[in-house]
Specification:
The chain has ten helices and six strands, in the order αααββαααββαβαααβ. The strands form three sheets. A two-stranded antiparallel ribbon has the order 1-2. Helices cover about 65% and strands about 10% of the residues. It is globular and about 55 Å long. It has one domain. Strand 3 and strand 4 form a beta hairpin. The chain has about 220 residues and is mostly helical. Helix 2 runs antiparallel to helix 10. The chain starts with a helix and ends in an 8-residue tail after the last strand. Bound molecules: zinc ion. Zinc ion binds next to helix 3 and helix 6.
Length: about 220
């Protein structure tokens, strides 16, 4: 899954307004942000294999530290603990950690059974990537739903708060559309190098966050 992770990041802002959108993106995308550098370092592996599922031409066969259930639970604990020590906000720390773990569950919906629970299996995956309609519906529902929650929970302080957000939304949709509709990538190295650019979304999220304000929950009608 790609867009859906960002959808959860957006929605997280309502549950934990103390967390910047950049921190929320860091949490929900940590698995992928870790995966590509680990591939470049030769620690984790995937290969280009057109037809591996209907939607993606990639075969993910070795990613225990970035995409294992237990590994992500460990990363989530670490993220939550560091946040708690630094900021002393328990609810936000809990959500920060859960955001890291959420990546596994969203990916487990779309991947075929290649998502490790322990580092060397068992492997699970519902395989939505074998269906175009289900893949598009899942990505659109989680991303669109999360974005709607975010739009209702925050408002732009200035023009940047509007345009930086919509530029991000447009860019994410374009990246995702290109990746699923375009030809298979030329090499694993190209995917890995461009995948590292995923880190860009964290400062972009912080930038948006600084230009948007929380909308206070509406008071109960008298
Ligand atoms: Zn992933």
């Amino acid at each position: 899954m790609f867009l859906g992770h960002f959808g959860l990041g957006f929605a997280g802002k309502r549950l934990a307004p103390a967390l910047s959108l950049g921190a929320l993106f860091l949490a929900v995308q940590w698995a992928d942000m870790l995966f590509f550098p680990l591939c470049l370092a030769g620690v984790e592996h995937f290969r280009i294999h057109p037809g591996d599922t209907v939607v993606t031409p990639m075969e993910f066969y070795d990613y225990p530290w970035s995409h294992g259930l237990v590994a992500l639970a460990g990363w989530g604990l670490l993220f939550g603990a560091v946040y708690l020590l630094a900021r002393r906000k328990a609810a936000a720390a809990l959500l920060f950690g859960l955001g890291v773990l959420s990546h596994w569950f969203l990916d487990a919906f779309v991947h075929r059974p290649d998502m490790p629970m322990l580092p060397r299996g068992p492997y699970v995956g519902l395989g939505l990537w074998n269906s175009w309609p289900l893949t598009i519906a899942a990505e659109a529902a989680v991303f669109g739903g999360g974005l709607l929650v975010y739009l209702k929970s925050t408002r732009a302080r200035d023009r940047v708060g509007t345009w930086a957000l919509w530029a991000l939304v447009g860019f994410l949709v374009a990246v995702w559309t290109g990746s699923v509709l375009g030809p298979p990538p030329p090499s694993e190295r190209v995917v890995e190098a461009s995948g590292v650019a995923m880190w860009l979304f964290v400062p972009w999220g912080y930038w948006i966050d600084r230009h948007r304000a929380i909308v206070p929950p509406r008071e109960a009608p008298a």
